[in-house]
Each structure stands twice: as C-alpha cells, then as structure tokens.
Design brief:
Elements lengths: L1 H11 L5 E4 L6 H10 L2 E4 L21 E3 L4 E3 L5 E3 L5 E2 L4 E5 L10 H4 L9 E4 L2 H13 L1 H21 L11 H24 L1 H23 L5 H13 L1
Parallel strand pairs: 1-2
Antiparallel strand pairs: 3-4, 4-5, 6-7, 7-8
C-alpha cells in the first residue's frame, strides 16, 4: 500500500486525497507509511481470528478501553491492565504487554480468556494508534466504502463469473501471471469503452491515434529531423 500511495502522490502532485483498500492491505507498518506521506486511507477492518477471540465476545480486546495518558487498558469490568514499559520484538514490529493480577480471582475470567494458568494478556503494537485511527475512519464513512466495493469489485465479478476467467494459464512467476491478467483487463477495458462510447466513436479515436503515430514516425525518420525541427513541427501539430 505504501508504494502505491507514494506513486499516487507523485503523479497527482498532492496528498489531499483518500485511498480506499480491501482488508488484504490491513498492515500496521503500511498505515504508518500512509501517515508519514500525509495521505488519508480507508482499509476494510478484518475480522478477529478465532485464536484471538475471547470465550465471550464481550471481553474481546476491542472492548477494552485504552488510556493514552496513563498508558493502560481498562477491561469491561473496570479493572486496570498495566505495562512494565518494556517493548518486545515481534516478527516485524514492537509491542508492549498489559496485564493485571486481579484476573486470577476475577469471576469473569472464564469468559475473558482461555488461559488456565494466567490472566488476560493484551498486546499493543507500535502501530496500534494508526490501526485504531483507520477503524474510526471506516466506521464513520461506511457509505464511501460501499461505493468502493461497487466500483472496484464489479470488474472482477464480471471477469471471473460472467467471462469464466477464474484462473490463469501461466503459473511460473509473477511477471508471466501479470501478462496473463493484463490481457484480461485489456479485453475488459475495451469492452467497457465500446459500451460507453459506442464502436463508431472508439473507431474514430483509434484512427486519430494511428494518424498521430504515423505522423510522428515520419518526423523521426525524416532526414531533416534535428531537435529544433522536431519541436517546431510538434508545436504546429499541437496548435491544429
């Protein structure tokens, strides 16, 4: 996501846009990159994995309130989970652990955690603030995200379900796969252009494009083709 945002920012010459993505792009470090670029993003929030679910959904970590001033979590029962302040190393990120001894004697422990020996243990990643910000934006702009789904997902549905391209022929390497998929998208785009503009208008545009290509090909092959001559001919053509 970060690379795409950087390219979009360079092409548009601004960062005053909002980029929408599906949940496959929901990665903490990428949210940090978007923040550094000054670009607003909306990424679909994935569901909670079964391994992270509490026996009772009421006690999922999402229902614990974080206090940034005191750097602690408050559970649904009002108990405070604190951190030693130590950062632990994950695979690609750092995180803190929050817990409380009250868990051992809490009557709701069986509803809150599956751990038999320890109480609830909450992990907070260095990227959690960016993840939480994204969730707030998505929840407050549900209609905008529905529009993204209608616009972006429709072509894939047409190509995969109606046209039957639910797989690709080339399997060896992403470059070959991209070529395969690229041909599908070219066919789709041409079909859309024909449906929107009509075959006659498309034909005129293609004829004009071909004329331009032939015109500049002659300029390039011309024996009089020095830099000044080429620029002058281009300016004459562009003014017509």
């Amino acid at each position: 996501m970060g690379n795409m945002l950087q390219r979009a920012k360079s092409i548009l010459g601004t960062n005053t846009f909002t980029a929408l993505y599906d949940k496959g792009y929901h990665t903490g470090s990428e949210f940090k990159t978007a923040h550094d670029l000054g670009v607003d993003v909306m990424v679909a929030v994935p569901g909670i994995p079964s391994t992270s679910q509490a026996p009772d959904p009421k006690y999922n970590v999402a229902n614990f309130r974080y206090d940034p001033q005191k750097d602690c979590y408050i559970c649904p029962e009002g108990e405070i989970l604190t951190s030693s302040g130590r950062w632990f190393k994950g695979k690609n990120y750092k995180f803190k652990q929050y817990k409380t001894k009250v868990c051992e004697k809490c009557q709701k422990k069986a509803y809150c955690t599956r751990s038999k020996q320890h109480g609830k243990l909450v992990h907070r990643s260095e990227y959690t603030p960016y993840i939480e910000k994204n969730k707030q934006i998505v929840e407050s702009n549900k209609e905008m995200y529905r529009r993204r789904q209608a616009i972006v997902e429709h072509p894939y549905g047409t190509i995969k379900r109606q046209w039957g391209y639910s797989y690709i022929m080339t399997k060896q390497g992403i470059e070959r796969a991209e070529s395969d998929v690229g041909l599908m998208f070219i066919a789709y785009n041409l079909r859309r252009i024909i449906n929107i503009l009509g075959p006659d208008v498309l034909k005129k545009h293609l004829q004009s494009l071909l004329s331009n290509i032939l015109y500049f090909s002659e300029l390039i092959l011309s024996p009089y083709n020095d830099r000044k001559y080429f620029i002058n001919q281009y300016l004459i053509f562009a003014s017509q």
